[in-house]
Amino acid sequence: MSSASGRPPAAIPPQRRSNNAVWWILGIVAGGIVVMVLFGLALAGLFIRNLRVHSQGNNVEIQTPVGAIKVNKDVQRATGLPVYPGATSGETDKNAKVELSAGDGAVGIAVEHFTTTDKLDQVDTWYAHRLGSSFRREENHDHHPIHGVTVDSDTDTAFVDDHGDGVRLVALTKKGESVDIVLMRAGKKEAQ
User: Residue 55 domain-assigned?
Assistant: First the structure.
């Protein structure tokens, strides 16, 4: 059987159907982004509204709903480490104490800077006898970080105690005719 006109049957052109699935997916993604942005803005607004900053002299305290940050540049004996006899703290802008607290936990770091005109060997010997057995003495012959901590790239000797929940450090650096002494304590607030 052949067709009456002798022509092959005409192909029916495909009809274009709109693909609504792509538009639905794009709408859901865009809606999710809008919801996330609005939630972020609301959270930031809540955070900023409850942010309190107290500043007095060289002390700053920032209180937020999740915790507090305290910076104190007027520190005196914040590290609790012994100061070499006769050492002076001429550069008080290098001394600082920072505390971060959230809920029941708090961590902090305190740094003190002193200088003495005594010889490095004399200061080294005094700290070796004064600090006790929990500190280990480390030398920096190649001017690399001591125990992974770079106090100063020129630090000659350091006494490090990293037992427990904190780190205590005494770094000695020969600078011309004097010795720089950096005392540092970092860790849980209770340990400071």
Answer: no
Q: What are phi and psi for residue 3, nearest 5 degrees?
A: -75, 150
Report how many domains make up the chain. 1
- pTM for the model stands at 0.60
Give me the domain span that covers residue 80: 65-191
Question: Is 182 domain-assigned?
Answer: yes
Q: Residue 70: count other Cβ atoms within 10 Å of its Cβ.
A: 18
Kindly state the average pLDDT of the residues 78-87.
82
